[in-house]
Amino acid sequence: VCGTDGIISFPADPSSVDLEKVANIIVDQSLKDCVFSKEAGRICYTIIQAESKQVGQSIFRRSLLNRLQQEYKDREELRARSPQAWICYVTFICNIFDYLRVNNMPMMALVNPVYECLFRLAQPDSLKKEEEVDCLVLQLHRIGEQLEKMNSQPMDELFSLLRDGFLLEEGLSSLSQLLLLEIIEFRAADWKMTDAAQKYYYSEVTD
Amino acid sequence: MSFRQRSPHSGGCGSESSSPQHPARWSQGRKRGADGKRRKQNDSDSSIFDDENKYGSSDNRLDSFTTPEGPGPFSRCSDWGSVVEEDEMRTNVNKEIARYKRKLLINEFARERKSSSGSSDSKESTVTVELETDEVVLMRRQKQINYGKNTIAYDRYIKEVPRCHRVPGVHPRTPNKFKKYSRRSWDQQIRLWKVALHSWDPPAEEGSDLQAITPVDLGEMETESIGSNSTESQASSQDNYDTFSGTPTKVRHVDYQVEGEFDLEACLNEPLKDFSTVS
User: Fold this and answer.
1) Which of B62, B79, B91 sits opposite A69 (nearest CB)?
2) Residue A98 in contact with residue A146, Cβ under 8 Å?
3) Is the pLDDT at A179 greater than 60, yes or no?
4) Residue A106, helix vs strand vs coil
5) pLDDT at residue B49, rounded to an integer
6) What would you measure as the largest C-alpha separation in chain B, in angstroms?
7) Are A115 and B47 in contact (CB under 8 A)?
8) Does the CB of A83 have a partner CB in chain B at under 8 Å?
């Protein structure tokens, strides 16, 4: 049982693995720890493969996805309650989209929800927060190209929002503006880093 | 953070478009009003995918999202777990049918080569077999097969009798989902196959309460009756049946000795008839 304080206690029989619990533990942790959520997809992928090969089932995947869906339904409240958890959630769902495949294709079921999350991040109130802009551009770097392949029209719309945000919105920090400019150019260059962009954006960056 | 158990009978399953429980949330509400201004933020139902005028068509609605008018004939459940499982099964089935067709072509080709010595008549060449290609049917059949294979009995069976040692008519054979059969015929084959598999159920002394409980087969089938094995509880009723209630959990394997003999008599008493001629 995973209490709300995050303390995890295991059932009496440690040899039985409740995969649904494991899925919940992973999601809970992802919402708290952004570093974890960045790579949790890989862990999930491993567990799913193992379950599939060893017992031919997908209890873990099903629990994971349904929990993800539940959080997605309540994402506005999540964002209002904890901006940090919201960012972790978006990072996590994008990571899941990146790693979890079905017969070598990304999961269709996640395409729209991921887009919705990115659109939310592109709203004026989110653009005013550096952490959200940062999250947005990071996700687009990681999965933008794939996402666009699955469904390209929303990407056009998203980027037009980003351009509007960049040009029209007041209250954007200069870092946010820089991040937006970079991702706009990145996509324009077909999701690739050009030398010019590398020089412009990253040559001044100190490690 | 509490997690609501996903009940197999949650509102989305089997619901029609009038169900309030599981609308495709991203198809409700509008993100922008007619003046282009954004709607209030706290409208959790708002979605970029609802304004069809903007996108020109409903093509953005992915088919895997079962919208009420959507083409998803299999289920109205919109929970991601089920949608992904369905997609996976669909792509698997499509791969299998491609593979099966290739296999048939190869067989046909090989047979034609053998009989190409001039005197070949229609008896020698392959009868053109019509295949079952309806995705809905294939997926339903695959599910039924999965239920049968997801049992301890099946595990024991395949361990005990390798495919090369199988004797037709004696050893149960998985019905071929790609062949054309009537619904009744198919359901009956599945039923008999699963009954035959019960010969490999673990013996009662080894803990019969651990036997996998097979859920009822799909659709309007009558509950199958298990004659001999009184310890197995068939607690299913077809009213409970939900396509997406969790795949039967394979019970933890008990250590057992593989028995040298199986119950041949039971096997012979339940012969698998060939139903290919039954309409």
Assistant:
1) B79
2) yes
3) yes
4) strand
5) 64
6) 80
7) no
8) no
